[in-house]
Request: fold
Amino acid sequence: MLDDTESYVTADGRTIGGVVLDLKSITLRFGGVEAIKNISFDIREGEIRAIIGPNGAGKSSMLNVISGFYVPQEGEVWFRGERRPQMKPYQVAQQGIARTFQNIALFEGMSVLDNVMTGRLNKMKTGLWSQALWKGKAEREENENREAVEKIIDFLEIQSIRKTPVGRLPYGLKKRVELARALAAEPTILLLDEPMAGMNVEEKEDMCRFILDVNDEFGTTIALIEHDMGVVMDLSDRVVVMDYGRKIGDGTPDEVRNNQDVIDAYLGVSHD
Amino acid sequence: MGADFYYTIEVILNGLMAGVLYALVALGFVLIFKASGIFNYAQGVMALFAALTLVGIMEGQVPFSHLINAVFGTQIHDFGWHIPALLAIILTMVVMVGFAWLVQKYIFRHLVGQEPIILFMATIGLAYFLEGVGDLMWGSDIKTLDVGLPQGASLWIEENTAFLGGDDFYGFFIDQLDVVAAIVAAILVAVLVIFSQYTKQGRAMRAVADDHQAALSVGISLNFIWVLVWSLAGFVALVAGIMWGAKSGVQFSLSLIALKALPVLMLGGFTSIPGAIVGGLIIGVGEKLFEYSVGPMIGGATENWFAYVLALLFLVFRPQGLFGEKIIERV
Reply:
C-alpha cells in the first residue's frame, strides 16, 4: 500500500505522484434517494483514474460533487492536502478543476476559437479598467492567451474548424472542442464525463489517443467516466467501480477485472 | 428638385433622429435579454428613474423629502447646493450600479432557473415598484433636465441647406439635441460592441448568454455577470433618460416610451445590438414617413399605431426579427 505522498513509476514509464484529490466518505441524497453512499477514493497526481459502473450507479453524481455542481450531505473533499470548503462550481473551476459534460455544454453561438478562449478566462488577470486605459498590456495578454489556445487547437487537430460556429459541428467534433476548452484552462485535474459516448470506433480511437497524449505531454491528472470496458482497461491506471451508489471495487484494471463483486454487477447475479 | 422632395428628406432625417431615441431604450432590453433571458419590462422605468435621480442630484434635492416632512413635520426640501452635470451623472451611475446589485441579490438570484414568464412578471413588479420609489424619492412633478446639451433647431443646418429647395423651402429643420443623441448613441453602441467582443468580462458575458452550465464550468460567476449586465442596462437607461429628459422634460410618461421599444425589438430581433439600432431607425423613419404621406388621407395620428402594425407584420413573416438568431437545430 502506497503512502499518500509517495510516488511511483508505471510500467510505461510515467511518474504518478501523491494524492491530489481525496474524497472521504461522500454521501449524496436527492430527497429520500441516496445517489452516493459513503464513498471514499483518491486521485493521484498524473494518473488516469476511471470511474465505471452500470447505468444509474452514481458516476456522474460523483463527478458533479467533485466539480461543485452537487453539494454532498456528508463527507469531505480534500484538494492538494487541504480540506475544501463548500464551493460554487465556478470557484472549483478557478481552483484548477476543469470538466466536460456527458451531454456537451458548449457555447453554441460562438466559434470554436471563442469557445476555447473562454477556457482561458481565469488566466486573464487584466481588469476592466486597465483594459480600457492600458491597451498595450491587455493586448499582450490577449496574444499570450491566444498562443496557448492555438497550441491546444493544433494538439487536438481542430485547426480546420477554428472559425466555425460550434452549433454547426457534428457530435464527435463537439466533444473534442469541449475537451479543448477544458484543457485551455491548464487544469490540475481534468474531469471527463463519458468522453466517448455515442462515438464510432474511429472517433473513439482518436479520443483515446488524445486523452493519453494530454496526460503524457501536459502531465494532466484525469478522472473519467466511461462505459466501454475495453477503453477503460486500456486507458486507466486505476479504476473505481460503482453500483447502486456504492463503491464495489477499486484498484488497477487487472484487480478490478478479477473482482467477484464487479463481475456480478456487470454480468448480473440474482439478488436474494 | 422640388421643395416636396426636400420635405420628404427632412421627414426622413427627423425620423432617423427619433429612431435613435427608440433605439437607446431598446438597447437596454437587448443587453439584459441576451445575457439572462429576462425580458426586462422595467427598462423604461429605469430610464425614468435614472433621469429623476440625475435631476435630483444636480439640484441638491433631499431624497424622500415629502416622506420625511410628513413624518417628522419638518420643512426640508433641498441641500441648497448645485452639483455640476458631469459629477451628477457619475453619481447617478453609482446609484444605478447599486440598483443593479439590489435587483440581482433580492430578486433574480432567487428566480434562477424559473420559467421566462415568471421572470417577466417579476420585471413588471419591479417596474411598478421602481416607479413608486422614484415618485417617493424625488416627487412626481415634471422637472426640466439641463445637462448643458445644445437645444433647439440647428440654424447652421437650416441656413446651409436652404439653397437646395425652391422659394418656399427654408432649409432642413433639425433639432440640435437630436444630432447630439445620434452621436451619443453611435458612441454607446461602439463602446458596447468593443466591450462584449474584446474584453474578458465581455467574453464572459457572451458565454453566460449562451450556456449557464458551460459558463460555470470555465469558472465564470453567474451572479457577477448578471450584476454587470444590469449595471450596463442601468447605464444605457441613464443615457436614454438624459436624452428623453432633455427633449421633453423628466415626467412619468417617460416610462411609456418603453412600450415603443417593443416593436423596435420585434423588428430588430431581441438578441441583436445592431438590430436594436436598425429597428429603432426603421420605426422612427417609418412612422414619420407614414404620417407625412398616408396620414392626412386617413385622419392623421398614425404615429400611435404604425410601429405596432409594422411589428405585427414582422411577427408573421420573420418572427426572429431582422438580426435575431435563427436557431440552428440538428436533428
